[in-house]
Write a structure and sequence with these properties.
The chain has 15 helices and 13 strands. Strand 4, helix 4 and strand 5 form a beta-alpha-beta unit. The chain starts with a strand and ends with a helix. Helix content is 44%, strand content 15%. Helix 3 packs across helix 4 and helix 9 packs parallel to helix 14. The protein is globular and about 55 Å long. It is α/β, with parallel strands linked by helices and 352 residues long. Strands 3-2-1-4-5-6-7 form a seven-stranded parallel beta sheet, sandwiched between helices. The chain has a six-stranded parallel beta sheet with strand order 10-9-8-11-12-13, sandwiched between helices.
Amino acid sequence: MKVMTIIGARPQFIKAAVVSRAFREHRPDVQEILVHTGQHYDTNMSDVFFEELDIPEPDYNLGVGGGTHGQNTGRMIEKLEKLMMEIGPDWVLVYGDTDSTLAGALAAVKLHIPVAHVEAGLRSFNRKMPEEINRVLTDHIADLLFAPTETGRQNLINEGISAKKVKLVGDVMYDAALFYKEKARKPNLPIELDASPEGFVLCTIHRAENTDDPQRLKNIFQGLGNSGEQVVLPMHPRTKSKMAQSGISFPDNVWVIEPVGYLEMVWLEENCKCVATDSGGVQKEAYFFGKPCVTMRDETEWVELVEAGWNRLVGADRDDLTNALIHVSKGVESKMLYGDGFSGGKVVTSLC
């Protein structure tokens, strides 16, 4: 049996590490062909992940990246289709909600190759988000859908997808958090920064809805500055570029560092006071490590975290962000929001 796994962005590398390990442990007879589209092509944003997560080097790197959503998706489909015709996989496995996800699913379905989607059923109900379009389309052409939560499973059924196609397996990111927690390492931080446990706020900003809107981006940094908290910000290349274009400066209490690998990110999440982010994955990781999260978006796919009080949505409102960081509080303890830590094995068992 041959499974072609398609990845292209940092969160997908982490998820794929979990499932690839499960293949090796539970089904070593399965041949997994790992294809990196090149969507994240910066060395600090991509290559380092394969090294530190102990993921085998991709069998193929398509080198597609740096263009618009349409350009990237079209080029990926063209290259993936050719590769699938050469290899003839029994399944194509895709993750999450990126352009790589949609391209892999479209290329496979047109060749009548079954598609399995890990992290299916998530919905923000905001069709302006490219990620929302990617995941909805992928879900509706997939043959096997692995939902991380009961909410995700119900979303799929509500949209008319057969319950027989849907498997509630939990979140493979929780598997990753448990596995890599002991391997976490401290990143290079400024000597002047107080990096004592719970002495700083960890912040990540990368979504286009924030970075591509100068006013939203300005509001966010004003809110961070007005909080007076020590804020550690691993700088995403897109955010850095957009700030320069808009002439937005960093507040004195925001400590900018280079992008970090996953193991360094885990250390930051374990040691911070709270998290401020617009990332879907980081919202969950904050919860995995028992840290409150302030989300700089108007909606979230991870509604369970909001309902349990672990996540507070503030959009790009300067004052709401400031107040949320100053008056941050933990939510209600709930141990099973995202499974039992064995989601990767369940994916492999269902697929094989």
